[in-house]
Design brief:
By secondary structure, this protein is α/β, with parallel strands linked by helices. Helices cover about 10% and strands about 10% of the residues. Helix 2 (about 185-195) links the parallel strand 8 (about 170-175) and strand 9. It is globular, with a radius of gyration of 17 Å.
């Protein structure tokens, strides 16, 4: 699948995720990560997941609900995509020593966590369209250049001060968070720059000396 750079999301496959049914009707169990990797391999002519540099486990039906340790078999992966599922929690993935891009957009994640083991290599975190309200958890990502964080629950611009521990961060997507409420992108720009003066691209727009 092609990648949508503007949104920081892997292109959705047009699947609208349904909420789990309530009441007496039993919910269909989610797809586990091992099964998802198996399906990915079958779709990619029997590709060996231990050798792959790009693995996209997108839009599973039923969706992935939990990240688990079976993802650690992806020892060579540089770009891991788990977008458009129902994942509610990030976990540590210590075997992913080469990962540079982690895509978790369109899930149900409430906080950023588990990045300590991959912070030394991770350059891009795509985590738009989740339920994240703080920027805690990114301190280990010393090489992070890109953070796609649109359509989450960030309320206050001072929260951006936490990203000062990511010195290489130059590309950030924040539109769609409550902090932008009542503001146009242009009005929000100086408020973001007050806390992140070194960024080069904000909400898909290249910043110039006039900003």
């Amino acid at each position: 699948l092609p990648i949508s750079q503007g949104s920081g999301l892997d292109v959705s496959c047009g699947l609208f995720l349904q909420q789990k049914p309530t009441g007496s009707s039993p919910a269909m169990p989610g797809t586990n990560c091992q099964k998802a990797i198996q399906l990915w391999s079958e779709k990619n002519e029997g590709a060996n997941p231990e050798e792959a540099e790009v693995v996209k486990l997108l839009c599973l039906s039923p969706p992935i609900e939990k990240m688990d340790s079976s993802l650690n078999q992806l020892v060579n992966v540089k770009h891991l995509a788990l977008s458009t599922n129902c994942i509610d929690k990030m976990i540590s993935l210590p075997a992913l020593k080469n990962i540079e891009i982690l895509s978790l957009g369109r899930n149900m994640i409430k906080k950023i966590s588990g990045l300590e083991e991959i912070g030394a290599t991770l350059k891009e975190l795509w985590i738009s369209y989740n339920q994240i309200s703080t920027l805690d958890g990114l301190q280990p990502c010393v090489k992070l250049t890109t953070l796609f964080m649109s359509n989450n629950k960030l309320k206050d611009f001072p929260e951006l001060d936490k990203l000062q521990s990511n010195p290489d961060l130059i590309n950030i997507l924040l539109v769609g968070n409550p902090m932008y409420e009542g503001l146009t992108r242009k009005q929000a720009r100086p408020k973001v720059l007050e806390h992140l003066p070194k960024i080069a691209t904000l909400d898909g727009e290249l910043l110039t000396g006039d900003d």
